[in-house]
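Protocol step 4 of 6.
Sequence for NUDIX domain-containing protein (Kribbella sp. HUAS MG21) entered exactly as in the expression construct, tag removed. Do not edit the line below.
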Amino acid sequence: MRWVIHGEGEVWTNRWLSVRRLDVEQPDGERLEYHAVRMKDIAAAVVTRDEQVLLMWRHRFLTDTWAWEIPMGIIEPGESPEAAAARELEEETGWRADGLTELIQSEPAAGIMDSRHFVYRTTNVRYAGPPTEHNESDRIEWIPLSKIPTMITRHEIVSGITLIGLQQLLLLERT
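Step 5 output, structure tokens:
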């Protein structure tokens, strides 16, 4: 069953997202006003070495919470998801990837938002220097992969893109 968009207008926008008002027709023929967020795509990197994963301890002011996250950020115009993941990794942690492979892709809220999340993995990194993004995290640490399930259970990892990336990694490690 497919919904049809007959029209779309901007309610509010900035450089990262746009709130939209849509004129949609449902499969049963009923037309209604629908609101959605059009947001830039996000790229992230899961970095592992020696049975450890590189994580950042961050404060998210909107939810006023602290948690561990993988490096991530918006894909810039003309940039590939893979290049964005590599750039964000280096800017936020100071570690440079020598090659990334796709780990998983998700659409975290496809009913209301069109942003796609691309998660890449690398096992080959070298330290390039201190992070250039100084407002991203308080700590950057290598955490044993064996601790990740317990950290998720204790809500020390709550970011959707981080959860999906780490859980996919753990699934692949089991097979």
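Step 6, annotate. The helical segments are 81-93, 148-153, 160-174.
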